[in-house]
Amino acid sequence: xxxxxxxxxxxxxxxxxxxxxxxxxxxxxxxxxxxxxxxxxxxxxxxxxxxxxxxxxxxxxxxxxxxxxxxxxxxxxxxxxxxxxxxxxxxxxxxxxxxxxxxxxxxxxxxxxxxxxxxxxxxxxxxxxxxxxxxxxxxxxxxxxxxxxxxxxxxxxxxxxxxxxxxxxxxxxxxxxxxxxxxxxxxxxxxxxxxxxxxxxxxxxxxxxxxxxxxxxxxxxxxxxxxxxxxxxxxxxxxxxxxxxxxxxxxx
Length: 252
What we know:
By secondary structure, the chain is an alpha/beta fold. The protein has helices at residues 5-11, 26-39, 53-66, 68-83, 147-158, 176-184, 205-208, 212-221, 225-228, 235-251; strands spanning 89-98, 115-117, 120-129, 135-142, 167-168, 189-190, 229-230.
């Protein structure tokens, strides 16, 4: 898995200008990060053709903290959103198991959305998508956090940007607060009521079938092993690997 020169040319303008005696060019550097993201290996296992592993890691960490990866992600995200007609918004979350190495960072070094659920230590990735490839909004929470409050954060972040577009959500988001918030921004919540609801509502069964778009999105995201399992202590690093996975997929 490598970015070609043609693909690199599309994002070259978003990279910092290289100055001084830099041995590793930006194209080689991005391919090194892709290797780590795809294989989920340790930084020390990075093949020598990419250069010194510690130099790659330090540059990647610096770019994550300075928002370089996020800037490339945002630019390609806007290209994708403009290129499609947004007809539905699918809201859901997926749990990423925590590797033992991801524990132990000091709080002063950065945020760490890590929590213990029945399945063990996890990080949850919350996503709103327009189809099986295009992410509209995403953020992290601890694995012990309930989906509904985090879903409301996603809805508030998007606001009324897609007025009238229905939200496709599973039963985890069927609470009154979530549906009312959805409607307050001009969206139609398409969500099945829980079976113990005293006054269940009708919903569009055919439209709800499209909710599988977000499940397909999670499937290709987790093909990148650095996303499927969280090895990184800090949120900014882990979220950057999610963004790297999106960047490569959108460039193809």
